[in-house]
Amino acid sequence: MIIYTTSKTTDDLSAVIVLQKNNLQVNLTKKEIVSEGFVTVMHSLEDLKKMNDIEQSIIAKDDGKVIAYVLAMTPKSKADIKVLIPMFEHFEKITLRGKPLSKYTYIVAGQVCVAKGYRGQGILDNCYAEYKKKFKKEYEFAITEIATKNLRSINAHRRIGFSEIHRYLSPENEQWSIVIWEW
Model pTM greater than 0.90? Predict the structure, then answer.
């Protein structure tokens, strides 16, 4: 039976790292990248613990094994993970409804992943439903960025209710879509 909960232990966070490693773009074939999607950032256990001390991420477990996650990250963590600093810098340049994004209270879906064998079963949707339930009272919306070549993720986030508010090209020539999920 699959349960949806928050990351409470070091074992939970270690399992997230294993899932990340198995789905990192650099560890997948081109065919897998296109058909299955990918994650870009490899977090350290220390990074995840720091993030988790601020807000616990949502995880899905099947028989005690972590099979999916939606990381929870706030602007308080923006300097902790160097590869994500440009994302936060872009957030600071965006205006939403005439107001700088930095004037809103938001939570960042720091990364999402569902293990192979569990995809296409609504697990990501259920993780995000828990995410919204947990964070809706404290944050005005969830925001994240997705590599535009990650069509599986783009389509999943659109289905859940995210909409694009900005697009940019990174110095590495990667195009990114910044999307928000307004609650």
Answer: yes
